[in-house]
Amino acid sequence: MATENKAVITLFGATGDLAKRKLYTALFKLYQKGYLADHFALLGTSRHDYSDEEFQELVRNSIKDVEESRDGEAADFSKHFFYKAHDVTKPEHYTILKERIEELDKQFGTEGNRLFYMSMAPQFFGTIAMNLKKQGLLSDDGFNRLVIEKPFGRDFDSAKKLNDALSQTFDENQIFRIDHYLGKEMVQNIQALRFGNTIIESLWNNRYIDNIQVTLSEKLGVEERAGYYDHSGALRDMVQNHIMQVVAQLAMEQPVAFTDSDVRVEKIKALRSLRLYTPSEAASNFVRGQYDAGADNPDYRHEDGVDPQSNTETFVAAKLMFDNYRWSGVPFYVRTGKKLADKFTRIDVVFRKPLIDIFANPRMASEQSLKSNVLTIYVEPQSGFALRVNAKTAGQGFQTEPVDLEYMQNDSSKKEAPEPYERLFHDALEGNHTNFASWSEIAYAWKFVDVVRKLWDIEEPQFPNYTPGTMGPAASDELLARDGRAWVYNLNR
Fold this sequence. Notes:
- There is one protein chain.
- The protein has 16 helices and 14 strands.
- By secondary structure, it is of the alpha/beta class.
- It has 2 domains: about 5-150, NAD(P)-binding Rossmann-like Domain (Rossmann fold); about 180-480, Dihydrodipicolinate Reductase, domain 2.
- Helix 1 packs across helix 2, helix 5 packs parallel to helix 6 and helix 10 crosses helix 15.
C-alpha cells in the first residue's frame, strides 16, 4: 500500500521543456499509484503569464499520453496545479509566492511540507535560495527541501561557489541534486547484484576482475541542445556526473546498511581513492573526439548553433584507476559520445582468465581457447544482465565456446518499473538521498575532471576524428590495446 506524501511543490521553470516532457508525467504516475493524493499542490512559476486554468491545461497536455486508470483522473490531478508569473531576481515577487504557498498549504492540508524544484538556468540557483530564506518562504512546522537539476557548476571553483550559496539557506541533508541516471532501474540493480549475491561480491576485487568497462552511447547528435552543448561538451555533460556516479557505485565498498547516509559514505570513499592524474597522465589516459559528417547530417562544427571553429568534444574515452586495496591495478574504462552506433548504456565486468588453460591446444599456444568471463549489466534500452561463461561445444572432440546466462526484464516488469524522474521525485518527497549526488561526490568528480579540461583547453585537437555510426575514434580502441585489452562491445568484432 502506497503511503501518501504531503507537500506543496514550488517548481521554478514550470513552463520549460523538462517540466513538460518529464516532470508532470512523473508526478502523474505517482498520483496514479497513490504516492500523491489529496494533500499535495504544485505552484508553477516562470516569466510567462498564465492563469491557473491555462497552466492546468498545459499540465493535461503534458500527460495526455499516459493512460488513465479511471475516468477523469488527469482532470482531477491537474486541479492540484496553480501558477504565478515570477521574476526570480526581484525580491518583492517572493512575497506573492509566499502568500500563495501558505494558501495552498491550508487548502490542501500539506502540514507545512515544502519542496522547491529548480528546473532552470543554474546561474539563478543561488539567488533563488537566498530569497527563499530572506523573504520567509521556508516552513517552520514541516520539511524544506531543495531539488536542483544539473549542471552543477562548470568546474570545481564554480561548483563550490554555487554550493556555498545554497548552503546559506539549506543544509546538505535538505539538498537533492538530480542525476537521472541514478534513477534507472539497472543502475540501482548494481548494488543488489553486488551485495545481495555472495557469488558476485566475493569475486568483486582485483584478484578476480581484470577490468571494468562503462559505455554510455548516444545515436543522435546535439539536436536542439547545440547552444548548451557547445559550451559544455561530453566531459562536463556526461563524464563528470553520470559516468562518475555509475563508477562510484561499481567501486564502493559494502555499506554498513542500505541507508542513504551509509551509501553516501562509501561512494565518497571510493571517489577519494580515484587517482588524480597529472597533465601528462591525463593526456595518455583520456581520448576525445568530434563527429564528422555522415550520409544525412553535417559534421558537428556545421550543426545549427555551433561555432564553426569549435573544439568541443562530442566523445570521451578514459582509463580510470583507483588507488585502494580492492581495486589496485584494475582499470575502469569509460566512454560516451554522440553519433555513435546506437543508443545504449551497458557495464561490462571482465574477469581474469584462469592462470593455466588446460584446454588450450599446445600446438597453437597463441590461441587460447578460453574466453574471459564477462558480467554485462544492460541499463538501457534493454534492462537486465548476462554472465558469459565457457562451456563445451556440442559434438565430437573437445572445444570450448562462450555462452551467456541471461536475464532480461520482460515487458510487464518494465511497465512496473518507475521512470527515473518518477523514482527520484518520490525519493525527494520521502527525504531519501540514496539516489542523489552529495556535494562531496560532486567535488571529487570536478577535481578529477578539471585536470583534463584544463589540458584540453590549451591543446589543439585534430577534429573531426570519427565517423557517425561507429563507436568513436580509433584512439579509443588504442587506449585499451596498449594494455593488451579490447572493448567488449566492439562493432569490428
